[in-house]
Each structure stands twice: as C-alpha cells, then as structure tokens.
Amino acid sequence: MVAKGGSNLYSLYENKSEYVNVCRMLSGDLKTVVDTDKLNISLLQNAIPLFKGKKVVSIVHDCSPIRKPESRVLDGLGKVQSLDNTVVNGYNTFATIAVDVGGREVRLLACTPFSNGVDSYVSKEERKAL
User: Fold this and answer.
1) 80: buried, middle or exposed (CB in 10 Å: 19+, 13-18, 0-12)?
2) DSSP string covering 12-81, please?
3) In which region does residue 22 sit, left (phi positive, over 0), alpha (psi from -120 to 50) or beta (all else)?
4) Residue 73: which domain range?
5) Which pLDDT belongs to residue 126?
6) For residues 90 and 67, is the Cβ–Cβ distance under 8 A?
7) β-strand 78-81 against 87-100: which pairing, if any?
8) Per the domain annotation, does 128 fall within a domain?
9) In terms of domains, do 42 and 17 share one?
10) What is the mean pLDDT of the chain?
11) Domain count, the chain
C-alpha cells in the first residue's frame, strides 16, 4: 500500500479481474468446483494411447477415504474410518487405475468423490428397506 501511494485496495492489483477475485475470496464467495465427469473423461482419453496394443492390462477399483479430521465446515462433509479405526470427518473416493502388467505404466482412469454427509446418500439400512 505504501509503494502504491494509497490505501485503496483496488490499486494493489494489476487489473479489475484480479481485484474482483481477491474480493470474492475474502468474502467467501469464491469456490472452485471440479467437474468430475469432465475430469474422468480427460483421464480416460489420456490413458488410451498408453495402453493400446498391450497384451495384459489390469483394471483395479478402490474405495479410499480422504480423511479431514480437523475440518468442521466443508460442503457435504461426512464420516470415514481413520487409520486407528476411529471415525473422523472426511470423504470417500472411488478410484480406478489401469496397470500394464508387462511394463511399468500405471494410470489413473477415474476418481469419483462421494460423501455420506450429503442428503442424497443412501445408507445400507435405507437400501435394505427399499
């Protein structure tokens, strides 16, 4: 502020867009949303050339937690199992990888996060009742 010769916040930034983004970040309005469908399509498209023509490719599916034990207020924050078998805040992911058995290629094909903390989550008990 001293170098710019004033206390106007907008004078600290190169352009209006940068200023608006900082204001949105400070107000809490700036949120980045990842479109998992687009990301997964891109991952698949990038993996196709690497595995084309390979004799044996193994596809591995894995459901893994993303632990957020210190988090309290995140969108759709759910509960997951910690490494010491306690329940902590977090999310789950369903990931798929491709492994070239004869070579050294391993690629992420898809990763879909999900949470038992969202209203649309259906528990085992709810599913059995259907």
Assistant:
1) buried
2) GSSSHHHHHHHHHHHHT-------HHHHHHHHHHHHHHHHTT-S-EEEEEEEEEEE-TT--S-TT-EEEE
3) alpha
4) 34-121
5) 86
6) yes
7) antiparallel
8) no
9) no
10) 84
11) 2
pLDDT digits (tens, 9 = 90+) for 63-75: 999 898 888 877 7
Distance CA 31, CA 25 (A): 8
Q: Given the DSSP bridges, would you call strands 106-114 and 87-100 parallel, antiparallel or unpaired?
A: antiparallel
42 and 3 within one domain: no
82-129 tens-digit pLDDT:
999 999 999 999 999 999 988 888 999 999 988 888 888 888 888 888
Can you tell me which residue has the tokens 């789950």? 92
110 belongs to a structural domain: yes
| CA 29 and chain centroid, separation | 19
